[in-house]
From TrEMBL:
The organism's place on the tree of life at top rank: Eukaryota
Regions that span the bilayer: none
Keyword Lyase on entry: yes
Lineage: Eukaryota, Fungi, Fungi incertae sedis, Zoopagomycota, Kickxellomycotina
Enzyme nomenclature, EC number: 4.3.2.7
A GO BP entry: glutathione catabolic process
Molecular-function annotations in GO: glutathione specific gamma-glutamylcyclotransferase activity
Protein name: glutathione-specific gamma-glutamylcyclotransferase
Keyword set, alphabetical order: Lyase
A GO term from the CC aspect: cytoplasm
Length: 213
């Protein structure tokens, strides 16, 4: 089920609110495996983007797509300014940088259970943040959802891989396997799911990484 834009803002938490506690709807933004493996009950969904951050395979995976001895690589979100500092040869414009994904509204009454489940699923270095979701990546449009929960592996977390090139990242993905399957499967299924939503949802970085793995 896809919620209409004019209805999607209703029930969102106030800034940095906790919707699983205050009785309002809990929206979760998926930009990685959640897009193709939604293992929690959903009432509605909105395809859209968040602005000012890039999706990057710079988070090590020790528990899903790799192991402790040979970690894989999974997605995190890198703020544009931080990306530019890490990769000065490929600067990110904060006004045009965007990451496409899907926001899911958790089934009413299941918020606390789903939040605990997702905390466990994303336990390898991820923390909670809140973002606005837009229907397009233009700078002038208003968000269709505000304060949507998202899991992010910030650069200070112990599983952050650092400034890894596409070539190095692709080599890791090509060989890594974990309890959830091969690392290759992760990126292939993510790209497939994004293209099913919108043809240009796979950005240049993700497309280049897909080709190299």
């Amino acid at each position: 089920m896809t919620v209409a834009v004019e209805d999607s803002v209703e029930g969102c938490a106030s800034a940095l609110g906790t919707p699983w506690e205050n009785g309002r709807a809990l929206w979760v933004f998926g930009y990685g495996s959640i897009i193709y493996r939604v293992d929690f009950p959903v009432e509605a969904q909105v395809f859209g983007c968040i602005r000012g951050r890039r999706r990057a395979f710079l988070q090590k995976s020790h528990d899903h797509r790799g192991t402790t001895s040979q970690p894989g690589r999974v997605c995190t979100l890198i703020p544009a300014a931080e990306w530019t500092a890490m990769f000065p040869g490929d600067p990110a414009d904060p006004d045009t940088t965007a990451c496409w994904g899907v926001a899911y509204r958790v089934k009413s009454g299941m918020e606390q259970q789903v939040k605990a489940q997702l905390d466990h699923r994303e336990k390898d270095g991820y923390t909670v943040d809140f973002v606005s979701v837009y229907s397009d990546d233009g700078a002038d449009s208003a968000p269709v959802l505000r304060n949507v929960l998202v899991y992010v592996g910030v650069s200070s977390n112990p599983s952050f891989a650092g400034a890894s090139s596409i070539e190095e990242t692709a080599r890791v993905i090509a060989r890594a396997v974990g309890p959830s399957g091969t690392n290759r499967e992760y990126i292939y299924r993510l790209c497939q799911a994004l293209r099913a939503q919108r043809g240009d949802a796979v950005d240049e970085y993700l497309g280049a990484l897909e080709k190299r793995t």
